[in-house]
Design brief:
This protein is an alpha+beta fold. It has 9 helices and 11 strands. The structure holds L-homoserine. L-homoserine binds next to helix 5.
Length: 314
């Protein structure tokens, strides 16, 4: 029997979970983290779709045509003009990223499907080409961009096209993520936002988002305590995450440089310099404070992923 690994229509990729917004950078900043989902794609000429999922949320991942990774694979095939030739696929995923918690699990499926299919055809699209398709599927770039590029990303939408700048911070950070035991849909978390914001709140965020990027790029840790707060989305989402403000305060009292909702929630993320050695103390403080609000949570201590999606096997 032909060795399955020799199949030229197969690729295996690893995609990082991501945290969007980073406080003040609503819908434009994101970072890749060292928690990963794995996707094993085999393209089939026949019209047959097999989806097998293991790990986080496996029981709720659609197995049919609604499967997000399959939609991404089909979009890539259409883009490169091979959709008539490959009508089916075997998609196996192993997921570590919690679902519907603001850690970019849907982006891992989209980016995984795109990157794996692209690899099978010898990478006709570069990272910017993949980003364009991923943003089109996801609707906004702030999770898919770091999942593709790694590191921190700043994305700008201009006339419907996305421009992403990715960089590695000059401060080695530890990311402390408190993962509550409830899901939060991005749709609901966007529904509670106002249509318009005040000039004062806009200035509040522009100044902090700018400070965050400048401090990370130049390695100026002393400016980070002024860089993570937000006035555009967190005040409105507070009611969806019991104890949000108090968990932020607990993280900061334990030594965090700042804290924010991860993406649209429900996770909360705190930041500390790796050299502080405070990550376990901050994690315990966040979990304990969630408990004070009757929310059971677990903590993840992560680093910034430097690579973005990676091909593991071909
Ligand atoms: N920037 C988006 C939001 C991220 O906060 O709604 C969603 O994953």
């Amino acid at each position: 029997m032909k060795n399955f690994m020799d199949n030229k229509n197969r690729a295996v990729v690893r995609v990082p979970g991501t945290s969007a917004n980073c406080g003040a950078g609503f819908d434009c900043l994101g970072l890749a983290t060292t928690i990963y989902n794995y996707l094993d794609l085999t393209l089939l000429k026949k019209n047959k779709l097999v989806v097998e999922s293991a790990g986080e949320g496996a029981e709720n991942i659609p197995r049919g045509k609604r499967n997000l990774a399959w939609q991404a694979v089909q979009r890539l095939l259409k883009e490169i003009g091979r959709a008539d030739e490959f009508k089916g696929a075997i998609i196996k995923t192993k997921n570590n990223v919690p679902i519907s918690r603001g850690l970019g699990s849907s982006s891992t499926a989209i980016v995984g499907g795109l990157v794996a299919a692209n690899e099978i055809f010898g990478s006709p699209l570069d990272k910017n080409g993949l980003l364009k398709l991923a943003t089109e599927i996801e609707g906004h770039p702030d999770n898919v961009a770091p999942a593709i590029f790694g590191g921190f990303t700043v994305s700008v939408m201009d006339k419907g096209a996305v421009q992403t700048f990715s960089f590695l911070p000059r401060i080695k950070l530890k990311l402390i993520v408190a993962v509550p035991d409830f899901e939060l849909s991005t749709r609901l978390a966007r529904k509670v936002l106002p249509k318009n914001v005040s000039m004062r709140d806009a200035i509040f965020n522009i100044s902090r988002a700018s400070m965050l990027i400048a401090a990370l790029v130049e390695g100026r840790e002393e400016f980070l305590p002024f860089a993570f707060d937000d006035a555009l989305h967190q005040p409105y989402r507070k009611k969806l995450v019991p104890g949000m403000t108090e968990v932020f305060d607990a993280a900061k009292s334990a030594g965090a440089l700042g804290a924010a909702i991860s993406g649209a929630g429900s996770c909360l993320i705190a930041f500390t310099a790796a050299k502080s050695g405070l990550e376990n103390k901050i994690a315990a403080a966040m979990v304990e404070e969630f408990k004070n609000h009757d929310v059971s949570a677990k903590a993840l201590i992560l680093n910034v992923d430097k690579h973005g999606a990676q091909i593991l096997k071909r």
